[in-house]
């Protein structure tokens, strides 16, 4: 492998990462088994860090894998981490594992997104919730943020849209603060500018049908379902579907210690029913 010539910008960039993490040069030195003096020299460009030192500092600062490659190149070294397309033969085992995971989670919704929220896989639980979404938003490449917040997407049917929208935008802001991604910044500016659809007053409360075992009740915009408060432990997404309100809480999982940029940026988002009525509805209505 050939290496790029050293770039004096690696020092300031490492300092920027350290300041983002809000740690001192001494603390970083302790984490990276170095000295505060050497860290200072690296940050000011007086000392060129070795390849091993760049990687140790990046690890100590929890720098994303893509950005670790950028640090190496700036320091005059070859990138360490590959970026293998997800459809490459080498990724077949990963794709099969993701498909099995998504299928096993049915009838509950689950999907896999990349670093800019592009949907790379989804299960039938997700498909169930997409009724009424504009066809143009479902043409690949599908974007989860655009699909959720666009006025022709899920947004008009999200009962608590202001709260859910604010949470999603805050999530994107945190990610933008961690990675230098023009594409992610562009997506954020696009979806943040979408108008917020107004909901008619008569959709504030809808009935949830009986499911298997006779589960039934009602759902309302204040989070009560079947006489109990749903998802008091987390902000739910309350979504109108077929004249009913379904309630979900979401969780996001990423890969531990990834060695590939593509894998490092994948996230698996699962939607857990926040009440028994939603669970029963999903079991009764999963598409074939």
UniProtKB/TrEMBL annotation:
GO terms for molecular function: DNA binding. It comes from the Bacteria. Transmembrane segments: none annotated. Residues 198-225 are annotated as: Disordered. Residues 14-68 form the HTH cro/C1-type domain. Residues 199-208 have a biased composition (Basic and acidic residues). This is Transcriptional regulator.
């Amino acid at each position: 492998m050939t290496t790029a010539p050293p770039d004096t910008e690696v020092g300031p960039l490492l300092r920027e990462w350290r300041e983002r993490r809000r740690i001192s040069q001494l603390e970083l030195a302790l984490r990276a088994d170095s000295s505060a003096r050497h860290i200072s020299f690296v940050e000011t460009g007086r000392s060129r860090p070795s390849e091993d030192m760049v990687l140790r500092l990046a690890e100590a600062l929890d720098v994303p894998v893509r950005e670790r490659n950028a640090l190496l190149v700036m320091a005059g070294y070859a990138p360490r981490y590959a970026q293998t397309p997800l459809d490459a033969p080498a990724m077949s085992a990963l794709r099969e594992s993701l498909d099995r995971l998504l299928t096993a989670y049915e009838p509950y919704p689950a999907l896999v997104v990349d670093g800019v929220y592009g949907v790379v896989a989804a299960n039938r639980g997700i498909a169930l919730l997409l009724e009424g979404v504009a066809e143009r938003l479902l043409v690949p490449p599908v974007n989860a943020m655009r699909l959720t917040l666009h006025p022709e997407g899920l947004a008009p049917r999200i009962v608590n849209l202001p709260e859910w929208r604010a949470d999603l935008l805050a999530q994107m802001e945190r990610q933008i603060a961690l990675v230098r991604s023009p594409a992610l910044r562009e997506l954020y500016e696009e979806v943040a500018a979408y108008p917020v659809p107004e909901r008619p007053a008569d959709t504030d409360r809808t009935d949830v049908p009986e499911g298997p075992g006779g589960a039934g009740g009602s759902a309302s915009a204040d989070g009560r379902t079947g006489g109990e408060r749903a998802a008091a432990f987390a902000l739910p997404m309350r979504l109108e579907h077929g004249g009913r309100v379904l309630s979900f809480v979401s969780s996001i999982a990423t890969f531990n210690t990834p060695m590939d940029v593509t894998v490092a940026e994948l996230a698996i988002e699962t939607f857990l029913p926040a009440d028994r009525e939603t669970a029963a509805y999903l079991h009764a209505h999963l598409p074939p």
